[in-house]
Each structure stands twice: as C-alpha cells, then as structure tokens.
C-alpha cells in the first residue's frame, strides 16, 4: 500500500515538474514575432526633478521589501532593549519576508519547482517515519501478547521495542492527546 502511494506521489511530482518546465520554456514573451511585424521599442522616461525621481522609485518599489527592512530594524531595537524573544521573532520574520519577496521576484519558477519537490519529499519522509513507528509498536504489542507479560512490565517491554527516537516521540504525542481527551 505504501509503495503504491509513494510511486503515485512521485509520478504526480514528475508530471508537475514537466508541466512547469514546459510552461517556462514556451512562455508568451519568447521574443518571437510574426513575419513582417516589428517589435515594439521600449520607452524610457527620464524624470525631470529629484522629487519626480523619488516618486518614480517609490511607485515602482516592491512593498514587501519596503516593509521588511523596518521590521528587521525594529526587531533589532526590541532585542537590544531586553525583549529578546520578540526581537528575534521580528528579525526572523523580516528576513524571511525579505528573502521571499526578492526570491519570488527573480526566481519564482525555481522556487515553485523546488518547493514541489521538497514538499513531496517531506510527505514521503513523514509517511516512512509513521509506518516505521507503527511497525515497531505492533511488534512490541505482539511480543507482549506472546510472552503474556504482566501489566506493570508492558510499558517496559513496549519501550524496548520502540528503538527509534521518532517512534518514541510519536507515541508520547499520541498518549498526550489521548490523555487530554480523557480516553486513557
């Protein structure tokens, strides 16, 4: 079952990557013109005054980049004034915002492709970890049933069957959720 899901995810990812490549290669603005048609020249306007030049820059700027820089500065001020968690959070938010705004302006297609591949790999890895955890838990329960272990020794036996740290974390999270719901 897992391998079918894994290969289906892989096939969909490959189809998505191929579609992205085809769309990027055959875009509308390929520079090709009809025979006898002349390409339109681009018109460059030169501002006549410094205030007009400043307004031109402001009008053409990316507002995400414009907002990211003061956020980083305010985060640094907050961090140096004793609000370390708030300051670092603001700095990290501003840096990620700045990076994403600049990267999407220049490399949107590649970010989409790598995001698709990365998210597919993250899904596959989480499925593998979850399946490994379930196998270890089932083996531990089967060993307890086979050996007819006393109730007090079951937790010890199950903990020994849970070899990987990820399995132990998954079990702890599930137990915590079940305790909150009042089921155990």
Describe this structure in words.
With 184 residues, this protein is mostly helical. It is built from 6 helices and no strands.
- Give the mean pLDDT: 75
Put simply, the count of helices is 6
Order of helices and strands: HHHHHH
Helix content: over 70%
Q: What percent strand?
A: under 5%
**Which regions have little confidence, pLDDT < 50, spanning 5+ residues?**
none
Give Rg in angstroms: 28 Å
**What summary fits the major beta sheet?**
none
- Helical/strand content category: mainly alpha
First and last CA, distance: 30 Å
- Please state the overall shape, judged from the principal axes of the Cα atoms: elongated
Total DSSP E strands: 0
Strand and helix layout:
Layout: H1 2-25, H2 50-60, H3 63-80, H4 84-147, H5 151-161, H6 165-181
Helix pairs in contact: 1-4, 3-4, 4-5, 4-6
Descriptors:
184 residues, elongated, single chain, mainly alpha
Summarize the structure.
By secondary structure, the protein is an all-alpha fold. The chain has helices at 2-25, 50-60, 63-80, 84-147, 151-161, 165-181. Helix 3 (63-80) packs across helix 4.
């Amino acid at each position: 079952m897992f391998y079918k899901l894994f290969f289906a995810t892989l096939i969909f990812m490959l189809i998505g990557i191929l579609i992205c490549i085809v769309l990027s290669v055959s875009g509308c603005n390929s520079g090709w013109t009809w025979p006898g048609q002349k390409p339109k020249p681009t018109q460059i306007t030169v501002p006549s005054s410094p205030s007009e030049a400043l307004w031109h820059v402001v009008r053409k700027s990316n507002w995400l980049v414009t907002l990211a820089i003061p956020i980083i500065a305010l985060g640094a001020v907050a961090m140096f004034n004793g609000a370390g968690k708030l300051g670092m959070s603001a700095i990290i938010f501003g840096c990620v915002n700045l990076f994403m705004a600049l990267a999407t302006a220049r490399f949107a297609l590649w970010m989409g492709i790598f995001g698709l591949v990365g998210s597919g790999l993250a899904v596959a890895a989480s499925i593998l970890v979850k399946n490994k955890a379930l196998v270890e838990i089932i083996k531990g329960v089967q060993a307890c049933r086979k050996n007819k272990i006393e109730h007090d020794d079951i937790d010890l036996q199950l903990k020994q069957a849970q070899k990987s740290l990820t399995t132990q974390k998954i079990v702890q999270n599930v137990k915590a959720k079940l305790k909150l719901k009042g089921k155990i």
